[in-house]
Amino acid sequence: MVDLPILPLTVTDAVVRRRGKVLVGPISAELETDGLTIVMGPNGAGKTTLLRLLHGMERVSKGQLTWRVPEPAARAAQAFVFQTPILMRRSALDNVAYPLLVHGVAKTEARARAAGWLEKVGLADSGSKPAHVLSGGERQKMALARALIREPQIVFLDEPCANLDGRATREFEDLLAETRAEGTRIVMATHDIGQARRLAEDVWFIHHGRIHEAAPAEAFFATPQTPEARAFIQGDIVE
Amino acid sequence: MVDLPILPLTVTDAVVRRRGKVLVGPISAELETDGLTIVMGPNGAGKTTLLRLLHGMERVSKGQLTWRVPEPAARAAQAFVFQTPILMRRSALDNVAYPLLVHGVAKTEARARAAGWLEKVGLADSGSKPAHVLSGGERQKMALARALIREPQIVFLDEPCANLDGRATREFEDLLAETRAEGTRIVMATHDIGQARRLAEDVWFIHHGRIHEAAPAEAFFATPQTPEARAFIQGDIVE
Amino acid sequence: EAMKMAVTTSFHNSGLADVLLPEIKADLGLEVHLLVVGTGQAIRLGEAGDVDAILVHSKKAEDAFVAGGFGTHRTEIMYNDFVLIGPMEDPAKIAGARSAAEALGAIAAAESQFVSRGDDSGTHKKELSLWAVSGEVERDVSWYREVGAGMGAALNTASGMNAYIMSDRASWLKFGNKGDLALLFAGDPVLFNQYAYLPVNADKHGHVRAGWAAKLEAWLVSARAKELIDGYQMNGEQLFTFNAK
Amino acid sequence: MNEIVEGLLKAGQLILSLDADLIEISLRSLRVTLTAVLISSVIGLPLGCWLAVRRFRFRRFVIATLNALMGLPPVVVGLIVYILLSRSGPFGVFGLLFTPTAMIIAQVIILTPLIASISHQAIRDLWAEYHDLLISLNTTRRQRIATLLWDGRRALLTAALAGFGRGIGEVGAIMIVGGNIDHATRVLTTAISLETGKGNFALALALGFVLIGLAVAVNLIIHSLSRTERSGRW
Amino acid sequence: MNEIVEGLLKAGQLILSLDADLIEISLRSLRVTLTAVLISSVIGLPLGCWLAVRRFRFRRFVIATLNALMGLPPVVVGLIVYILLSRSGPFGVFGLLFTPTAMIIAQVIILTPLIASISHQAIRDLWAEYHDLLISLNTTRRQRIATLLWDGRRALLTAALAGFGRGIGEVGAIMIVGGNIDHATRVLTTAISLETGKGNFALALALGFVLIGLAVAVNLIIHSLSRTERSGRW
Ligand SMILES: Nc1ncnc2c1ncn2[C@@H]1O[C@H](COP(=O)(O)OP(=O)(O)OP(=O)(O)O)[C@@H](O)[C@H]1O
Ligand SMILES: Nc1ncnc2c1ncn2[C@@H]1O[C@H](COP(=O)(O)OP(=O)(O)OP(=O)(O)O)[C@@H](O)[C@H]1O
Ligand SMILES: [Mg+2]
Ligand SMILES: [Mg+2]
Q1: Is the peptide bond before A8 cis (omega within 30 degrees of 0)?
Q2: Ligand 2, atom 27: nearest CA belongs to which residue?
């Protein structure tokens, strides 16, 4: 739909402050056209806030974000999968079709495409269920389909596999690889270090609201530069 | 508070049916006084529904649940950690203190104990935050504290670690072991097979709404009896 | 065909309209839409040209209405009378009074509860003039209750308080919620209550149906109207006396 | 006391005998109020949503005012509409005074703030739920409002029904602008006022009971058509 | 048209000159309505919560009725209260008729269903949110209601304010049971009615503007005290 490339995104000294506390920042970073960045870090580090900041959903107290194109066009080509899926009070199918409807696709076509996406994420039989009866995993799958259906240029994923079972996680990873191959920029937060290893091209390690370490995946996992990152990677390998 | 032991729980032929579809059942099972049961199964298998059924939160269409003591007493000694934490529109501290207030504990004492529990789950600094600003992992920690604060005889945990980081997961497991040691019966759903291996004494493998396989943990992981269970355990080992 | 006429609550309460309107319809083919409002409001409706004629009973205001050019003229149609109502047991003993002023004086002397319309209506103005005659001008007293309401509402209040009140005879007879009240005094000629018909001036308001207003006026002063008005009875009593010239 | 019983009996009588006058004024009541509710809903529901969705400087002031306007004294509304529609007023040429149209206009003025205010309140929680998603999907304000209107339709129905209740029982304004003219602008409430003034309490109460019955019936019909209280959350 | 302007000017004049009568009736209006709102809230808010929390067979019917009762015609309420309080009525001995107390009673009857209905609607979503948790924690129905009342206090305030708006503008019922007696039961709305009947439209409007101003002021004060529209979700 939106053909102008919106990337790269340049973030300069962005700070998100709430109740007088800095939640995230100052952040300076650049997201290039290509890539799959995994955002990691302990609970409460600021991963969600950072993703929302990049997506333009957090009022910045300082600094700025610059997309290649001006705001409205840049907004239209992004998608976000929230940590807690937001359920519209509609059927699963209509939830997935909604972004298309909003962008002027005719109802029948939107539904047909939504049905296709439900199938892709393994919810073929659940389209007619009202979203609120879906199980935890089913909700995440639905949210994923809803985010990808518009074929965004960049997608932010906030722990999208938290409630998925093993098989669904693998299927998710396949789908993500496919999406990546089609040229979609991916930024994803996860706590699953195994998954991070499998998927990441770059890693951002977040600590106390800042990008503590940003590195290519191999380098990060092989030789983390900071003690915090090292501890974090260790800490996760509990077995 | 409630001193009469409420366990064992006997479930006979219980069925949960919604919109003309059987979601779970028929289930027949017994929960003994002691133990830690891990409930596993693919997304949408019925784990959440089963836990809710045991907790008495789903209207059964058939069959029945029998606790050792009659209903009201049995209800008072159970706790539940929901898959999506329910946030009361209060501070984190007041969220955790709430179950005590409901049970007649004085406000100051309730808050003091709640503060202790927040510390236990690693939220010492977040007590004064309104619950809705908490991060995904912080919410799960808060919900856990809120469930355990009343020292229930049995606690149902529905994927309580989905959004926890590695260290928090380990701390959770320690806390759970402690709780178990104090005599609390634990029934927990998880997708993390590693965690299941570490914690489980018994495993219930749920498939299509039924307890497909119920076995001691070692036996289950070593020699799953059904092809579905075998596939499930394999499927999870993605690497 | 329809025209609009503003009338006061006391006229409407009498029920005479229910007798006259169908006859007017039959004789003239004219439907008269009644707007039942307070006297002041009726005059304002006429001034604004929102009705084609008014039928009220407040001579001073009527004269001002004509003098202001809002109405072409004033035609007296009929009169009825005011009566004094009060508690059955009549604590102020007004039943034997020789004049209305004396009756009011007795109420003042006994300091019995008295309900006044207090709404600047024709009835209210008449009541005030009677108080002036009786010499009781001080009305800022606890037993004198100004209720600021129409005739029916004021009667309801009087009934609820078991108080004295001045009412037009028609409203009283038609009034359903009598409670312990009774008609105690009537007949003093000063209590006569003249109704007049005033067509709205078509020079001021072009849309006014002056033709119909004139036809209605002709009918109202006709022998046919006289027969109906004089013949209208309630509980065997004649309520209105036709006196158009 | 027995006026109340008498009123109930009379109400039964009037209804069973299908009294022609009663049917006429009841239908007129319904027509006026339903039309007014419809118009007010078309204005008020989106306005309420808009207030939920939009952040601006004087938002709080506007909302407080709207809340206050829920209590617009009907007599004042009646007066203002009267002055505007009066022959000597700016819209006098249309000759709307003392017609059902004038009554509808007055009711729209009374009901719109009420419906907007209640719907704003009803939609606030839904907006909190949807906020992130709709912002993320880069929806226009128009689309947000449309989505909230649609997904919140059950709650919004309550707002419209509140408007209906308020309208059907209203008398102060429509008395002034309608004039309570027999066979033209008389409705249930103005008839009740009239009978009360005459001291005919039983008849007034009978009409009142008919009115309440009518309001309950409309509510029940709409509730069961829309199945509002039936299915769980939506 | 210029009556409206005149009315505005007169309203300004009355307020600036601190007209003694105006102050008296304004204070009485406030006293009657605030008392009625308080009593109605004490009944209506928990009732609304109770209806949200409790499932029973005739729930839908009760809710539809409550919705319908939002539109209880004030004149009918006035009549019934009048009949009950009148000397020959069952509560005649208390001599409450034509006192502010009677006006408060009538207003409570009008406002309680309104407040209950709006608060039920406001609390429904919150209950959907809390349902599982409060059931799981084995709370008593009383505790559930108390929790919803407390955590939903902001939304419930709107219900109470809607009641205030409705009450302060109400005239039909308090006219009948209060009697609009000068210096005893005259309030702003009954004074407006009176002046309208007298044809003093400008004065009536002036009083109306004072009333609206008062209502806006009360709303603004309460909103800013409670900071309703300020902080994000709670
Ligand atoms: N409005 C706010 N006021 C105060 N603190 C806030 C606010 N919003 C978020 N926070 C805090 O900011 C921190 C970062 O939150 P964020 O949701 O970004 O963490 P996260 O890295 O995504 O954690 P998780 O892995 O648990 O999801 C948390 O500690 C949270 O409590
Ligand atoms: N009211 C309902 N009507 C129809 N289907 C329902 C209803 N409630 C739940 N379901 C379906 O029942 C199935 C079981 O749901 P449940 O939440 O128990 O799954 P789960 O095992 O917990 O899955 P997950 O691992 O994703 O959390 C799901 O497919 C869900 O869509
Ligand atoms: Mg997060
Ligand atoms: Mg589940």
Answers
A1: yes
A2: A136
Residue A3: partners with Cβ closer than 8 Å, 6 or more residues away: none
pTM of the entire predicted model = 0.89
Residue C241 pairs in a beta bridge with C79
A124 lines ligand 2 (CB under 6 A): no
Which of E2, E5, E67, E118 should be substituted to probe chain D, the one whose Cβ sees the most D Cβ atoms within 10 Å? E67
Question: Model confidence over D155-179: pLDDT tens digits?
Answer: 888 889 889 988 998 888 998 898 8
Q: Which chains touch E (3 or more CB pairs under 8 A)?
A: B, C, D
A90 C-alpha to ligand 4 centroid (Å):
20
List CB contacts of B227: < 8 A, sequence separation 6 or more.
none
Quote the Cα angle for B28-B34-B40, to 5°.
55
Residue nearest to atom 31 of ligand 2 (CA): A134
Q: Count of residues for chain B?
A: 239
Tokens standing for residue A142: 């639905």
Q: Is the pLDDT of residue B222 over 50?
A: yes
Domain count across chain D = 1
**Cα C223 from Cα E184, distance rounded (Å):** 49
Asked if A132 has any chain D CB less than 8 Å from its own CB, the reply is yes
C50 at E interface, C-beta within 8 A: no
Residue B96 near residue B145 (C-beta atoms within 8 A): yes
Distance (Å, whole) CA B26 – CA B12:
8
What does the mean pLDDT of chain A come to?
A: 88
In one letter, which amino acid is D52?
A
Dihedral sign, CA of E188, E190, E195, E201? positive
Residues of C in contact with D97 (CB under 8 A): 50
- Rounded Cα gap, residues E98 and D172, in angstroms: 21
Q: Which two tokens stand for residue E20?
A: 């003694």
- Please name the residue that has the structure tokens 């008269």: C32
> pLDDT value at position D132?
93
Neighbours of E231 (CB within 10 A): 9
CB contact under 8 A, D198 and C50: no
Nearest to D97 by CA among D163, D180, D207, D193: D180
Q: What's chain D's length in residues?
A: 234
pLDDT, residue D234, reads: 42
Q: Is D153 on the interface with E (CB under 8 A)?
A: no
Domain ranges across chain B:
1-77+153-239, 87-151
CATH number of D192's domain: 1.10.3720.10
- CATH classification for the domain delimited by B1-77+153-239, as one of 3.50.50.100, 3.30.70.1230, 3.40.50.300, 3.30.1180.10: 3.40.50.300
The percentage of residues in chain C with a pLDDT greater than 90, rounded to a whole number, is 36
* Amino acid at residue number B181: A
Q: Indicate whether D215 pLDDT > 80.
A: yes
Asked if residue B29 lies in contact with residue B8, where contact means CB atoms within 8 angstroms, the answer is no
> Residue B98: phi, psi to the nearest 5?
-50, -45
Q: In whole angstroms, what is the distance from residue D177 CA to residue D185 CA?
A: 9
Cβ-based contacts of D228 with chain E (< 8 Å): 60
Backbone angles phi, psi at B8, to 5 degrees: -75, 160
Q: What is the residue range of D55's domain?
A: 2-232
Computed over every residue of chain D, the mean pLDDT equals 86
Q: Which of A137-141, D20-24, D31-35 has the lowest mean pLDDT?
A: D20-24
State the smallest CA–CA distance between residue C38 and chain E in angstroms: 5
Amino acid at residue number B205 = F
pLDDT in tens, E50-70: 998 988 778 778 888 888 788
Whether the CB of A183 sits within 6 Å of ligand 2: no
B86 contacts E129? CB cut-off 8 A: yes
**What is the CB neighbour count within 10 angstroms for residue A219?**
13
Helices D74-85 and E201-226 sit at what angle, rounded to 10 degrees?
130
Given this model, what pLDDT does residue B160 score? 93
CB atoms within 10 A of CB C22: 11
